[in-house]
Amino acid sequence: MTAPPARPVPADDVRPVPPDDAWLAAETRRLLDGAARSAVPAGGFAWLDGDGRPDPSRGLQLWVNARMTHVFSLGVLLGREGDAALVDHGVAALAGPFRDPVHDGWFSRLDGGSPASTTKAAYEHMFVLLAASSATVAGRPGAAELLDDACAVVDARFWDPEAGRVVEEWNQDWTVLDGYRGANANMHAVEAFLAVADATGDRRWRDRAESIVTGLVHEGARHSGWRVPEHFDSAWRMLPDYNRDRPDHPFRPYGATPGHGLEWARLLLHLDAAVRRATATPASPVSGEPVGRGRSEPPSWLVPAAVELFDRAVAEGWDADRGGFVYTTDWDGTPVVTERFHWVVAEAVDTAAALARVTGEDRFARWYAVFWDYARRVLVEPAGLGWLHEVDADGRVACRTWEGRPDWYHAVQATLIPRLPLAPTLATALRDGLLGA
């Protein structure tokens, strides 16, 4: 049996000062300004290269478009008037060329405005769901209809009520379901489902989020030494050697992913807060139904499990000498892919802030400062290009897994989550004026 993770604490001689709210607010604005470079006049958002320019060789990626639509919705809710047109730009792409007009669902990639890949994957569809919910909360035209469509597709095609999780990937006409099952898509389903529950008042989505974390964390990671199993077959049997020959895969890497351990930890805390908030709020302002009905308090294991996940990820993923998190480890905690990715540090920042708030333990506040110190010294580029996506162990730009700057959502959220309550979810919290509350 794997020993429990150590309780990692930053070195006593490392006490950086974390950024204040003014710096975080300025960084939010800077990131959103940089992300706007990705808007393509013909429609949708492009993958940005290392210089912050659209990379036409990548086509248009569904997950990029959905994430951009989400972050610009947050910009609208922050009062940035110029971001409204960008949200509408993203909604139009999702309702238009990305949408399969014959079979429903969304194409994962477009080239020249036409589908370049016709697979229908849960990972991308969860970001469509998140984008639609955020745009709906932001009050953008067409967003509510997009959200209705996304909910219907996820309901009919991806939610597996027997397993209590989402399935992974279909062909275009939904006749062939791939046998692979993945934790990554389910992790983002938790995020999207909590957002949809807030946007619609429908508690089923929050219940589904709880079902996912129960299966993959309470019944999965707990029995794997708090290293989150990532890959499964159709019967949800773990595939520990999956992609051993492709350990640096950007979405399905071999082994355990400390960054995902951190992200799961944060989502457990959001779920815990969401259940508590629903219990305290008798009725949904949307449906009028008692969204807290059926549970008086959240599962008692959520917060302790979040602590265990954080501790395992930091103990095995964080480089105490040079800083940064390795991308993956073997199942005994040995690093496999040692490049550092910006999204992992962003999740570390968010989770440390959330744990400091929930537990009151000083060590999490200290880690929050340490993680921000690394991000600001190594990843944050003041020239307006956003954050470096990948560096090596010495902080030099690398591109073993990621080229360019396609992902802005993790960095934007890292500037907001520490300033917001854990529930409701980001868009609803901003709409309700809870920033800094």
Structure characterization notes:
The structure is a single chain. The longest helix is centred in the middle third of the chain and has 23 residues, at 258-280. The model is unreliable at 284-294 (pLDDT under 50). The chain has 13 helices and 15 strands. The strands form 7 sheets. Strands 1-2-3 form a 3-stranded antiparallel beta sheet. It has a two-stranded antiparallel sheet with strand order 4-7. It has a two-stranded antiparallel sheet with strand order 5-6. The termini are far apart. The protein has one domain: Glycosyltransferase, CATH 1.50.10.10. Helix 2 (62-77) packs antiparallel against helix 3 and helix 6 (183-200) runs parallel beside helix 8. It has 437 residues and is mainly alpha-helical.
Brief sketch in words of this structure:
With 437 residues, this protein is mainly alpha-helical.
